[in-house]
Amino acid sequence: MQRIKGATKVREHRGTGEGASYIPWIKTREISSTGTKSLINDWKHGRQIHTLSRNETNFYYILRWDDHVLDINEQYPLDRETTLRISKSLGVRHPVPENDPNERMTTDFRVKYLDESGKVKYKAYSVKDSYEQVFGNLEKTGVKRLVEKQSVEMSYWKLQGIPFKIVFGDRDINRTFAMNISVVVEYYDFQKVHTLQEFLCYLIAHKHIQTEMENKVLNIQKLTKEYLGTQEQIDSWIAKITKQSGEYNAIAKMDYQIAAFRQSDEEKE
Description:
This protein has 269 residues and is an alpha+beta fold. It has 11 helices and 6 strands.
């Protein structure tokens, strides 16, 4: 896989922009990863998000679900001169190639959010598969080097006055919660809704319906029967979420599915 040089990334304005216009420093196609790389369509602004592991993907879903989060910058580049100075002060080798003066270290996620007082703040996160991966046998060369890199990264964000946390996939990430979020936000855009089950996902994604998502896998069919089992319920939800006739007509065409859901449930009993 051909590595993209730092100068090219600078010319492409990577690491700049906000929301839909942000460009990550590293893209999924440019790196070999032992994890599962993904391109996620952000359901709020539509930009493709580049995650380099399954744990990064899951953590992104959880972060984005929080309504206090305003923006997330993945694969966020750190100022090279600053990380060089930090590496020298710590007595460790700088983590990026010396023969590419424009290359930079990155942090997995820089998050912009509103705190409890309504002030805009930032946090930074590094996502690792497990606690053992970082703080296992420090005598191993790979583990020791990873600790050195994390030390540089942690020191960088401390200098910026921004909280930094290492997130461990085996301790900190709720995979069930992330999976449930990924299912419902697929229908965050009303234009994708064509069935009652998809309408149910739409309602959950927009948090019109509050249901348990952290401890068990969503039973979409059961929830659809519970919340959308009658025409009266459907009309009630439509009245709550929209007054636009186009959306109403789209939902009204789903009436025929109510009987199908009931019949399916009866057959399973």
